[in-house]
Amino acid sequence: MTERVAAEQTLRYAEGLRELYAREREQRRRAQRALGELRDAYGATVAALSVALELRDDQTGGHAERVAALALELARAAVPELVSDPELEYGFLLHDLGKIGIPDAILLKPGPLTADERSVIRRHPELGERVISRIPGLGRLARDVVACHHERWDGSGYPQGLAGAEIPPAARIFAVADAWDAMTNDRPYRAAMPFEAAVREIEAGRGTQFDPEFVDPFLAIVRRRAA
What we know:
Mean pLDDT: 84
Structural class: mainly alpha
Shape: elongated
Order of helices and strands: HHHHHHHHHH
Number of helices: 10
Oligomer: single chain
Number of strands: 0
């Protein structure tokens, strides 16, 4: 009798454990699904913000998405460990966030900028980092891109004059893609540069404007895209 009671209690305990495990597993699935939906919504919001920002000075609204896609492709080829963090793409998309603080009279000026106006424009990486530091979910990786995408390998960039490996890898990757997109797309003040001319410009910037390590993989990517 005692053995039968003990066996029944054991079975009930096992059944209770199975039910508890099933409930816990379903709760985990729901939480993962909700987290995925939240990440998707966050990414869509970042993409929409980037388009809204660049429409101030780019009526096509296509620069941020083009350059982010190109920079991500280079990152996958050259520093693949960075790509697993969604912050990388967010930083690429929001690289010019700081231009929200630049007056239209300077940002949209059709002619050459004065020295004082150029100094104002050069504040946008610092302004962008200040803004992005207050956005939940965007940490160091995204801030690296926003703050340092105008630094140059030889130390002649801005705003900090960083050189070589002092520049975060994400910003070094982005700098190549950003320069290429600027050269190969029409601007109000000039037409797009021919493909081979842009290739020569990227090659000329090896070791001065760009990290030498990223030039060859980048050119392989754009040649493959053009084939």
